[in-house]
Structures are given as structure tokens and as C-alpha cells.
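Q: Here's a chain of 199 amino acids. Please give me its 3D structure as C-alpha cells.
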Amino acid sequence: MFTGIATYYSARTAEDQLKQSREETDESARSQASRVTFYGDVEEDLKSHQYYIVNRSADPVSKLNVMLEASVERKEEGTAEPQREHRYLVLGIWSIPPCSRIVLRSVNLAIDPAREGNGTVARSTVIIPGQYFKADRIYFTDSGGRRWKRSLFELVSWSKPFDHSPSTSGAIENTLPIFVKLVKSPRIQTAEAKPCGGS
């Protein structure tokens, strides 16, 4: 009986230690990811003229994809007025340095004609400059090679670069995303992010 009780408590102790070890490992893995976020100068309906993508960790993050909602216009042949659509845009940023932030504005976004996924986008399609738009979520890789997804509500590990079929949160005419790139006119704003690092 004594041996059985001792074995039971020994097993329980080992189980508790294993659970604690897993929690510590998970917390360590999330340490850098928890310092990568985004926010905007939101005025109405969670939309803004500009958004900030921030890396407050002491290591760079890479392969960042930002899922945006914005309006685009395209000029069809034989029509006087351009056609306006509300679309999902996917912005790829190769890396964000440690302790830094990037300011995204619609004037710095352009449709990337070189991206294979844009094959169905009309050549006349342009992003409307100066508009209110919305950053919905970001996907990035931490310095340990782990992939993460951050939305306004959660931070979770992720295995895909972005949502291929994003769920609609409004009146989106076409749910296929348009791949966009940063253009440097006017100059893209970058700044040091504080506080940075720490535990």
C-alpha cells in the first residue's frame, strides 16, 4: 500500500513538473511575438489614415504580411467614371529591425504587378490615396523561426503566410486578396520604438 501511494504521488509530481515545463517553454516562445503589434489612429469603424507596425523586441522579425482592407479604383474602357471596390490587400514586408516601427499610409501602398496572385487584377486598378483604411491582422516570423498571427484580439502560432480565403468582415466585393508593395514617395516613416526589450 505504501509503495502504491508513493508511486501515485511520484507520478503526480512528475506530471505537474512536465506541465510547468511546457508552460515555461510556451511563455518563452511567445516572449518576442508578444512585443510585435500594430495599431492605428482610429477615428471611426476601426479605420485610420495611418497604421503603425511595431517591433518592440531586441531581435528583428521577418516575413511580415499585413492584411488590410481598403478601397481601390479601376477604369474600365468605355466608362466615364472609375469603378470603386472595397478589397483585401496583402502587404509583404521582408523584415522589421529591432526596436523600431513603420508607419503605413495608403499613399505608400501600390499594387504589385510582379506578384503571381495578381494575375486577375485589371492593370488600371489603383489604390485610392489618402483614404481611411483598416489593418485587420499581421503574420510574421520570430527570430526562432516560429510563425505567428496577431489580430486586434489574439496572438496565436500560425503555419500559413496569410489567409488565402479571408473571412469577410464587411461588404467586400471580391474576397481574393490583392498583393501590394510599399512605395517610397512620399518617404515611408520609420522611428525607434520605446520601450524595447525587457521581460
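Q: Can you summarize the key feature?
A: The chain has one helix and twelve strands.
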